[in-house]
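REQUEST FORM: STRUCTURE PREDICTION
Request ID: SP-0412
Submitted by: Lab K.M.
Chain count: 1
Length (residues): 146
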Amino acid sequence: MFGTVTAEQRASIILNFSAVPGTTTGQEQATWDFVSGFTPTEPIYPGSGSLVIAGTIVAGPAGGHRRYRLTVPAYVNYTYEIYGNPTLAELGWRALPFSLTETGAIDRNKHTASAEGSLNFYVEAPATRGFYAVSFRVPGANTGTP
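STATUS: Completed
RESULT:
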């Protein structure tokens, strides 16, 4: 079975077992280092991945409600979400739908930036405490509530 495997390779795949300290049932243990071919890292977000911002009141669509414009820094391929309770106190998270234009349909909860610069989001709901929490994540990061 190990005819073409060198002694060094064999040592890297054969586990050495030892008795588990403090047991009387003959349990044994081994340590095995698993190498996956890459080093996992936590994503690094500019500004910790979120910011708290006040909205600027704008007119909104004709005959519609006023809206609040949130202008945030855009990072290419980062996904943005908006929440109406920046303190996360007893009210918990409240995700807010938004539009990318002042008069457009309020039709999304997430947006992935395609360029660096600034992004404007338009929400109709006033923030619980006067400020909004904007969360942003790198592609593939946790997609649930931040």
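NOTES: The CA atoms of residues 83 and 95 lie 4 Å apart.
Reviewed by: T.R.
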